[in-house]
Amino acid sequence: MHPYLKKLVQSFNISPSDQPKLEPLLEQVSAYLAQIEFISRNSRDGATRSERSDTPPLYLDGLATDDHSPEELVRLLQEQSQQYERQITQLAAVKLGLEDSLSLLNTTLDATNDGLVVFDKHHKVVAHNKLLTDFFGITSEEVEHSFVGRKLKEMLKATVYNDDTLLELIRFTNQNPAEKAQGLLHFKNGTYVECVSKPRFLDHRIVGRVWSLRDITDLKQSEEQARHQAYHDNLTGLPNRALLQEQMQRALKSAHHHEHRLAILFMDLDGFKYVNDSLGHDFGDLMLCHAAMRLKDCIREIDLLARYGGDEFIVVMDEVTSVKQVTELADRIIKELERPFFIRGESLYMTTSIGISLYPNDGDSAEGLIRDADMAMYHAKAKGRNNYQFFAQELAVLSSYRLSLRNKLKTAIEEEQFSLVYQPKVTTKENRIVGVEALIRWKLPDGQVIPPDEFISAAEDNGLILPISDWVFEEAIKQAKAWSDVAPSYFTVAVNMSARQFQQPDLVENLMALLHKYELPTRFIELEITESMVMEDVESAIRILARLRKLGIRIAIDDFGTGYSSLGYLKSLPIDCLKIDKRFVDELFKSKADRALVSTIIYLSHVMGVQVVAEGVETEEALKLLDDMTCDLIQGYYFSKPVAPDDITVMLANNDTSEDS
Ligand SMILES: Nc1nc2c(ncn2[C@@H]2O[C@@H]3COP(=O)(O)O[C@H]4[C@@H](O)[C@H](n5cnc6c(=O)[nH]c(N)nc65)O[C@@H]4COP(=O)(O)O[C@H]3[C@H]2O)c(=O)[nH]1
């Protein structure tokens, strides 16, 4: 105790029991006295009055205590002690605040879902939590040295091989202490951890760094799941169009690099629409899954199989060494799909048409190769389905021709480049005209005539078929009205209906409006629709046909025998006439099977009360045979080619118009 304090205790007679209470204060005072003693040496008058003796003079703020009475001294000391008490109270509050902050920090560190470690500016660990040690499988003691040297290597062992993200992050933060750094760590136990490192600032100065680690495995997994869904077809689980594009880009790059060849096989199931329409979409879905499985079995590990669209699949064959290898795969696929499918107790047959393009022969872009294979697939369909065709440049020429046709078609209607010709339909026995078929002709301003087979499908593709069909209908009805006065009552003008037109919801209303406009009785009009148009949606087709028929319009099925229809379904169709396709008529003398087929079609049609017309009859021989087979009507060059309306008017005038037809 300071000698003056001793003196003080003695002079104020402070009891020994009270002395401990005063002790903290006395200690403070003692420290203070030591301080003022130092100050006193530099007192205002500069005199050094602090010669060391047993009772050196006491100075308070430069005032020697010897100069003051004890009362004054006590007052001064009391003032000082009060000041100390205030300071102590303040300090205690600050300490409490600090303790509170520390406890808050510790609780926060433990409660957070992130692994945290806080460093000071000397890279010393200031704080960390348990999660951090869990992530790396280290102890709390090891954290101290964890981010440097050998320990860091140990710690990195927790992440997957070759994931040196953490190392990179540390390097980056050492070089850029003021920057935030962020990375994704992949741990051996499968977890994905997002790692963020931020500098700590105090008064605009960097005082250290905080590292936080967050387990984002769930997020990553749902991301993966979303990615899988975005890139795979829900039904078959196969890669979809988007993934195919990506994978093809990669395969093309690698093929270019390694000088490999690729083959793209574009497959379209034949008549799948029929399965869907007749057996339902659920059944169709099952069929697609089965087909996908079979296709998968046909390809090698390195090949890619994707679902491109409804019933379209694509195989990208990698490392192709020969064309034979490709044709073998195409054959295998065709055979594999030809085997019957047994689904829900039904056995079904399915075939496929395949178009093939080759890299680098046919191009080097994914889109181009797919387009070429698609074109070749259409060629395979045209060749009778259930076969494969390689892309050939001629197909591209054909396709660009179709494109140029489409552009020219746009002006054809406005410039009245279309006209109608009419081909008579006559009775097989007497060759009496019972009707005509209206056939469109397109003559370009330069005199070039383009046959309908060439431009109708192009017009179907770009939607121009609708205004063209409207024009044909109006023109044919106008002409039928002109003939209605001279023609017998059974005379009909048949008009070909386009697939798009058949799908128009206001088809019946539009047709009736036109008939009304030209005051033509409905019985003069016959609509020719193809089997495939009916098969698109059998139920709705039946509904529309029944409505038209009820209004008195005749219905004929055109090109019969070329589609997928069976004779069986004919009985459910509300039709008046069936036209046997020219292909069968051509084969009458060449193929016994076709002859038998034509005969059966005629017989069954009659049983069902449907009239039969044979198309494309060119010879007397064919006419006679068809007559023997009891075919009702014929149409073909034998009697007349399609001719101008005036020629028909003349024919009608010379026609036997007896009403017994
Ligand atoms: N070699 C040969 N050919 C014969 C003989 N008899 C008739 N033909 C031809 O066979 C086609 C019969 O018409 P389609 O089967 O309805 O087949 C038509 C029809 O599907 C479509 N088409 C024609 N006009 C129209 C139309 O106005 N609208 C729609 N949507 N399609 C039409 O174009 C197809 C072809 O029409 P066209 O070229 O006029 O060809 C016509 C006709 O000229 C014959 O004895 N020998």
Automatic annotation (TrEMBL):
Basic and acidic residues: compositionally biased ranges: 44-54
Residue ranges occupied by any PAS domain in the UniProt entry: 101-143
Database matches in Pfam families: EAL, GGDEF
The EAL domain, residue ranges: 402-656
Domain GGDEF stretches: 260-393
Domain of life: Bacteria
Listed transmembrane segments: none
Start and end residues of each stretch annotated as Disordered: 44-64
CDD domains (alphabetical): EAL (cd01948), GGDEF (cd01949)
SUPFAM superfamilies: EAL domain-like (SSF141868), Nucleotide cyclase (SSF55073), PYP-like sensor domain (PAS domain) (SSF55785)
PANTHER family on file: BIOFILM ARCHITECTURE MAINTENANCE PROTEIN MBAA, DIGUANYLATE CYCLASE DGCP
Protein's UniProt name: EAL domain-containing protein
